[in-house]
Amino acid sequence: MIHWGFATACFVWATVALVPWLALVSRRKIVTGAVTLPPRRRLFIQTIVLQTTVGGLALAAAHQNGITLFPPFRLDAAGVAAAAAWLAIVLGTLPLRWKVRSVEHKRRLVALLPTSMAERVWWAALCLSAGIWEEIAYRGTLFGLAFRLTESWWAAVLACCAVFGLSHLVQGWKSAGLIVVVAFGFHVVVRVTGGLYVAMGIHFLYDMVAGIWLGATSRDLEASAVPEGQPA
Q1: pLDDT tens digits for 168-182?
Q2: Other CB atoms closer than 10 Å to residue 206's CB: what's the count?
């Protein structure tokens, strides 16, 4: 049973409706040229603020519904194997996934990636924020609420993965689809390890490595990337 208090209602509205809608609108504006992305540092800070806000709502909603987000830490061989295997898969397939993207898609994605040392510092902060708050929000609170609603692990996971993918639509539909698959792997890691801790760690590592590697790989596209300007 879900307790629909103010915090829970705000959290569900933000994750299921507001964030996906903002991502979709931003994507359409960028593709059509109606708006340009802000400088990366500002973009990273804005994203951190949004993630922290959603994460705060997730903590409040979890408290309101008695969802345990931080059980005692435990890590056995199965947990280590699951985390290592999933991290190896998502990082190992990264070059191939990048190679098959269109040049135009790569150019748009360049604007979201760090290319200088200063940007990498902010990128690290963004990755840490994502690793913590996105796991709490989507693999923690949202999953807990969806599981209570459906009473099915599979149904709850699929719903959370879909919402998580939609929240990343600014990266494009293909990227959002791949993110759904990545999210499913994180749910499996959470189930095997019995908590969010390991998933937070590999989420941070994946985002950090992927962003820096892709940013360095994409330097030749920098000149033709989406122009930086003021946000709408």
Answers
A1: 988 888 889 989 999
A2: 21
Cα gap 116→215, rounded to integer Å: 9
At a CB cut-off of 8 Å and minimum separation 6, what does 39 contact?
228
Two tokens, residue 147 = 């599981």
Single-letter amino acid, residue 78: A
Which tokens go with 206? Answer: 């994946």
- Both tokens of 151, joined, read 């009473």
Band of pLDDT at residue 98, cut at 50, 70 and 90: confident
Q: Residue 38: helix, strand or coil by DSSP?
A: coil
| Spatial distance between the Cα atoms of 89 and 144, rounded to a whole number of angstroms | 27
Question: How far apart are the C-alpha atoms of 161 and 144, rounded to whole Å?
Answer: 13
- The sign of the torsion formed by the CA atoms of 141, 133, 70, 92 equals positive
